[in-house]
Amino acid sequence: MLITSMPTPSNDPSPTPDQLPNNAPAPLAGRRVRAAIIGIGAIGGGSHLPALARLAEEGETEVVAAVDIDADAVAKFCAEHGIPHGYTDLDRMLAEVRPDLVSICTPPTLHRDQTVAALRAGAWVWCEKPPVPTLADFDAVEAEEGAETGGPYASIVFQHRFGSGARHVRKLLAEGSLGRPLVAHCQTTWYRDTAYYAVPWRGRWATEGGGPAMGHGIHQMDLLLDLLGPWSEVRAMAGRLVHDVETEDVSTALVRFESGALATVVNSVLSPDEVSRIRVDCERATVELTHLYGHSNADWSVTPAPGTSDADAAAWRDFGEDVPSSHVAQLRELVASMRAGERPCSSGADGRMSLELIAALYKSAFTDATVRRGEIGPGDPFHTAMHGGAPGWAPGTAQVSAGAGSGAANPAGTSEEISA
Ligand SMILES: NC(=O)c1ccc[n+]([C@@H]2O[C@H](COP(=O)([O-])OP(=O)(O)OC[C@H]3O[C@@H](n4cnc5c(N)ncnc54)[C@H](O)[C@@H]3O)[C@@H](O)[C@H]2O)c1
């Protein structure tokens, strides 16, 4: 349903829908990127709208439509922010407004269908994490991209990869200045109380796609992979120690990287002293990031090994102008990729890598096996469901006794470690 329609303030020279082939992105030269926000809740209103508004100030974007199933909310949102068109129907918005870019800020189970609809309408997509509930969903989305025609592409929101700190450390690691990375720790130890999980859709595979590995730790794991490159194998445990949830509420994993580096990964919602942390010990220095929901230069430290020259230490510690990690930092790069007609960061294989690690973490934890990168493909139960149908973890499966391949439900919320 079209909720509201106001004259657009811009002098919009973009082609009308009937001037374009069905899914061809419209040329962007000499004009703003016309963006639509789908889902105007916490992240849509709190992060995507401000990021798009910031780039609008720089002449790069304009928000031309918003979509939400809540008709009153979308009408109010459009009126408050001067957005010309509000809809409750995504398909109708895509057909009538024909945006260049769609920000998907809805719950994860909607991401696949909404991303595919937008790509088929010729719009690039910037989709919130977690990208989609399963690897099969991700592969289905990737198949809809215009990889042969310079777009449209679907990029996942992983804003922690962006900003001056991540860029500086990625460069130091890539050029080998710090020597080989040897040992890493990746920690998302957060706290969520009983009231948080009282909301019916939380802690359920069908609605959240996973527990803290999927919903909370994905950002730090994605950044770890972005810094260290491809992983090769994982061994994991998962537990349901406190909350009345189908998914895990804590997981631990050991990860080997192709480079040979070894890492520990902890994802928890049971940790009163909350922190997000990545630490990488290299031959010549330790690099550490300590923050909670976003980082700036001051959150990074570099500790040189004994014998390092003052000049090297100073260069490693020079992060340049402070650009905090943020949605706007990622959006700026995405819009540049759109204008260049290039695959954006955090799409395709680059956007899939943390989802694959999470699927492997779950498979390892629920089957008591070492899982290698690339082994979860079509035909593997963990390709189509993060719980992989594992007894004690898949919805509706009976609790089984502890042992290899088991995960035990803990509906009473008693303190019982579950591992496979
Ligand atoms: N990148 C980050 O740091 C970060 C932080 C928080 C949330 N998120 C992610 O953002 C997404 C949304 O989370 P949120 O906290 O904003 O949720 P939310 O519940 O606050 O907002 C979701 C919005 O989507 C709307 N909606 C639901 N079904 C819809 C449909 N079919 N069509 C259009 N709109 C629909 C809802 O009415 C609501 O307004 C999730 O995937 C979440 O994991 C990312």
Structural topology:
Blueprint: E1 2-5, E2 33-38, H1 42-57, E3 61-67, H2 71-81, E4 85-87, H3 90-97, E5 101-104, H4 111-120, E6 124-127, H5 135-142, E7 154-156, H6 164-175, E8 181-191, H7 194-198, H8 205-208, H9 212-215, H10 218-228, E9 231-239, E10 250-257, E11 262-268, E12 270-282, E13 285-291, E14 300-304, H11 310-316, H12 327-340, H13 348-367, E15 371-372, H14 381-384
Nicotinamide-adenine-dinucleotide binds at residues 38-44, 67-70, 90, 105-108, 110, 128-129, 157, 159.
Give a quick summary of the entry.
By secondary structure, the chain is α/β, with parallel strands linked by helices.
Can you give a write-up of this model?
The structure is a single chain. With 420 residues, the chain is of the alpha/beta class. Among the domains are: 2-156, Rossmann fold, CATH 3.40.50; 180-282 and 353-384, Dihydrodipicolinate Reductase, domain 2, CATH 3.30.360. The chain is 32% helix and 22% strand. The protein has 14 helices and 15 strands. It has helices spanning 42-57, 71-81, 90-97, 111-120, 135-142, 164-175, 194-198, 205-208, 212-215, 218-228, 310-316, 327-340, 348-367, 381-384; strands spanning 2-5, 33-38, 61-67, 85-87, 101-104, 124-127, 154-156, 181-191, 231-239, 250-257, 262-268, 270-282, 285-291, 300-304, 371-372. Strands 14-13-12-8-11-10-9-15 form an eight-stranded mixed sheet. β2, α1 (42-57) and β3 (61-67) form a beta-alpha-beta unit. The radius of gyration is 22 Å and the shape is globular. The protein starts with a strand and ends in a 36-residue tail after the last helix. It binds nicotinamide-adenine-dinucleotide. Residues 38-44, 67-70, 90, 105-108, 110, 128-129, 157, 159 line the site of nicotinamide-adenine-dinucleotide (NAD). Nicotinamide-adenine-dinucleotide is lined by residues 38-44, 67-70, 90, 105-108, 110, 128-129, 157, 159.
